User: Fold Adenine deaminase from Favolaschia claudopus.
Amino acid sequence: MLFIRTTFFILLAAHWHLGLSCPQSDHSHPTREKAAEIARNNNARRDVRNVPAPKKIAIENVRVFDGEKLLPLRTVFINGDTIVPYVKGADVVDGNGGTLLPGLIDAHTHPSTVDHLETLSSFGVTTTIVASCQPEAICESIQNHTGLTDVRFSGLSANAPNSTHAKLLGLLPNETLTSPSQAPQFVDDQLAKGATFIKIVAEQPDSTTLDQDIMNALVDAAHAKGVRVACHAAGYAAADRALTARVDQLHHVPQDTPTDEPLIARILAQKAVSIPTLSIFRQFVMGGAAPPSAYSAANASAHELYKASVPILAGTDSNSNPTLGLPFGKALHDELELLVGAGMSTVDVLRSATVLAARHNLLFDRGVVAPGMRADLVLISGDPIANISATRDIQRVWIAGIEYEEVAAA
Ligand SMILES: [Zn+2]
Assistant:
């Protein structure tokens, strides 16, 4: 059992390492070279796709999810990259009585190529939060691809030099932290590289993990700069340490002992949010990398957090690891179903991937269908409040007003 649990934590970390197929090998050097090559390819594809210019569009005959309910049939107007109350001379799109959702937001992914962005786009994921940027060359190269999923990233995740994650990620000593005094510089370095939030890895405590003092100092330094802190915490003791550090977002949920009343009381008091990532737990159980109890604990945590009114964001941990990867885009639709399975209402599940995901990632220009907002929209044919699986039936996707035409059937 202990072996299985340890393996699970290693694998949970391992998928972050681009191209990592064997957690035992040292991939740091080849991975960095490979990353540079991937980044060059990504940059070479910037602006060479045949991207239509933003237009004036009138999407007629659609119900609109307003964050609480479906509004009666109406017309939604887009002018360029923005939703507007009305615009003259618009091209008309017939929504055929379908439902218009705000573009979906996946709050935890690891895309590394433009192809990954294309896939996310095709499934209606118009914004994604890239939870740690390792190897670093990648993140900038997947930003600002017009007409594709909008990317926000964290920079390097904060780790101790000899921790499990540092080894698996192939971090160099100067990319890790050994003292609280290094925290302000670490935060400044990530922000200078374009990070919009800071990511800390809280492992189950042992002699190799990041000290509590360092975690506390990182959160203080990030908050002093007005940025939020996301924390990997896949075990109960790790979540406890994350909360002691006063992080803003708890990514994953304990897969050993479910989140209980004492932890929840602290989460509520600190106004933290949870990104349970049930899909990756399910993936590990299905792949034999974790015992079934890992999923039941994760599911129980999500259930208790929701019951206590902790804000839940939909995140998948989708990644391209060859053995335990999770498909981009499709995984978000799976996650929505798994969150319903954990007891959430369909309305709250839709909010977890739209308005709440935007608000808690400080993306105030999106997450709702309203004039003035970014024209990130997903047209589906059914009623996702009646049945969450309706989100899979995607008809059309717009990203900042540009239609992504190769939509997928999720
Ligand atoms: Zn992850």
